Amino acid sequence: MCGRYVMSKATGDLLSYFDAKEVEGDPPPPSWNVAPTQSVHIVAERLDEGSIERHLLVAHWGLVPSWAKDIKIGKKLINARSELEKPSFRKAAVKRRAILPADGYFEWQSTCWALCRSQP
Question: Looking at the annotation, which residues are catalytic?
């Protein structure tokens, strides 16, 4: 996952698209610049009265492992896909899976440095 992403859909659109039952938490507004530690929508499935139901939840972007002494570690642990071998993500990848809806993402690049070095 990148360091920033785009979520421009409204809460109602997400509920409809994912056929989710409800929103739990204070829904964040659409954003073109979602950063780690901000509130984000996630879609999770739960067992409700014998059947599996999808719910739209609000969570903070970042993983806080069960062994962490400070929740600030969550802003450092955002790249689960690339860091799955690390102990921080092992248990969460199996037990706490969810969908993070996104319309797009972007990465910062330092192109000026490369361009400036190649010029006489």
Answer: 2, 107
